[in-house]
Known about the structure:
2 copies of one chain form a homodimer. With 386 residues, chain A is an alpha/beta fold. Helix content of chain A is 28%, strand content 25%.
Amino acid sequence: MKGLVLDAVWDPKPDYEVSEWERETGKAITGNSIWRHPKLEVRDWPDPKPGPKEVVLEIQACGVCGSDMHFYETDEDDYILYPGLTRFPTILGHEFSGKVVELGPEVETLKVGDMVTVEEMIWCGRCIPCRNGYPNHCTNLEEIGFTIPGAFANYIAVDEKFCWKIDGIAERFGDEEKAYEVGALSEPTSVAYNAMFERGGGFRPGHYVSVFGTGPIGLAAIGLAKAAGAGIIAAFEISPQRRELAKAVGADYVYDPREVNPGEVLMELSKGEGFNFHVEAAGAPHLTVPEMEKALAINGKIVQIGRAAKRVPMYLEALQVRRSQVFGAQGHSGHETFPNVIRMVAAGRLDLSPIITARYKLDEAVDAIARSTSRTDGKILVKPNW
Amino acid sequence: MKGLVLDAVWDPKPDYEVSEWERETGKAITGNSIWRHPKLEVRDWPDPKPGPKEVVLEIQACGVCGSDMHFYETDEDDYILYPGLTRFPTILGHEFSGKVVELGPEVETLKVGDMVTVEEMIWCGRCIPCRNGYPNHCTNLEEIGFTIPGAFANYIAVDEKFCWKIDGIAERFGDEEKAYEVGALSEPTSVAYNAMFERGGGFRPGHYVSVFGTGPIGLAAIGLAKAAGAGIIAAFEISPQRRELAKAVGADYVYDPREVNPGEVLMELSKGEGFNFHVEAAGAPHLTVPEMEKALAINGKIVQIGRAAKRVPMYLEALQVRRSQVFGAQGHSGHETFPNVIRMVAAGRLDLSPIITARYKLDEAVDAIARSTSRTDGKILVKPNW
């Protein structure tokens, strides 16, 4: 088969101390400090064979994530920008849907022909966090498209326990192709859902919700907020194209944060009461969180989804005076998140299909990732079967 | 009667914009920006008369709070250090207990002779936060000993709804005088309880708890953590006297934070798992919270009680990777807090009497406050009937 393979040179930065674990496993904990001179190309890769509990999927759609973009972009010394767990060479791609085409001998819950979407986090189910019910914090994590072969490819083998059926979505749309496209949005939507409803504990119907940054995660957050009965939804986004998408999925007000004072805008919209639920999906908390602090409702919540290796100058007095709190979120596994996201789409409560702004063939996958660097699209899909 | 009266000159700092509300009410929102040349003395003050729903209490014990200390201490321009809501002249003192000696005509729940302790926050019960159940965020707040006459005095008149009976404490100790002393600790203990159990949502039995700063609030937090079944309790405190008190009320380990790296110590004590619940009671979050961030258990909580007008350089990634959260807390009213604190003492689950380190007569109240500036005591009491 073919796959979009990233290769890079293991060349730790002079000031980075490689751990024994990294040396043994070949996995970099901080990718940006180790992987240099990345090379991205669509090339031949061995067909996957299913393990005993695995299924082989024929991949139908796979979204380009910000992390994929950060493999394409490099710093001044030609190290990848992505700062997380990685082992190369591997096939990229982790937001996907596919059709079951082969079963391992011990598979119990799926059959050939089933339509599924898949978690990206291959949590072990055995470490202390997994035993405590926190799979997003698994200490033996493998990640599809980061440390093991991903889904910008014709096929993938994956344990059935990470697969979630999307046949309900196909029934809703009466259109398998659309169901695969929308099904591929389940992973980023689940990242937003986990942050908002599992980590942040959600908001009450009628509450005012702000979303800072409307890339795909922020757009999913807007759609979820709308579906969950938010009062006013206000969004802040630099790209005019993304501002339009934000409106399309449910934002009532959308602003360019360079042209307004976001904290003041939110206080005006709420007639001085503040916003109840603030979603950080810009990955720029040093800029966005101080604005959220200015517009906290009593009992207000700030949920950090975007990633940034920057310290945020926080004024904890604001949390005290406003009875407020900050939650950190990562991941999408566990806590009924994937199945609830799929239910919402199947029930017609959540339709993020407008955010799909481009589709590419597998042979053009490098172009798809290059395009994502403009940061103006919603979700770009690669469709290996197209 | 006599009372410890603070008077000061209304002399707004040049860069402070006095609001219309401040001018109308005579209340400074930011006391440190307005009140200059404070003068503190025990002097005559009119006897209080009860309003229709008020009782008059003969005050038995009143604790010295850090805020009282910040009325005594001044900045280089002789402004009070206390940064909060204030109107002078008034009698100081707000952590107290007393005996009911007179009833207004509409009082229904108390009788002459009842032993009570009292909330400090005179919440209106009518504003939006009060209507929503958030009395600690009342927008029409009066504060005993800050904006209205306090309890470093012989008598005080107060609405019965702010009084909580402590007869159960007297029964436990078989000693009314001790019950009044311990009853006067209810207010600061309720500040810690509100932060830990109402705002922070508590911790599970067995969880590891850290307390940064062991003044009276931090000492109360330690006692509460012990009573609620914490696993290890570790505290950090500069004063050696206060470190001893921390041990006396339940800390398993106590350190001088200048002599160790607190984050590393907590990681060692927890064998690398981190602490589950961190209490900031030092009022120095710019120093303490970064240490807490280094030692977050998965699902860890940081609760900010101490007040400081400083920005904290927070690393929100730590909250994300550790599935963690930060809560801001203020106040002690509502949410069953006072009655639960009193129950714990009456049931013998919480005994903070060891933290009472000095007792003064009312005539010596200025000395009591002067002594508190050494920041080495537990709780200093003024006993007007002594």
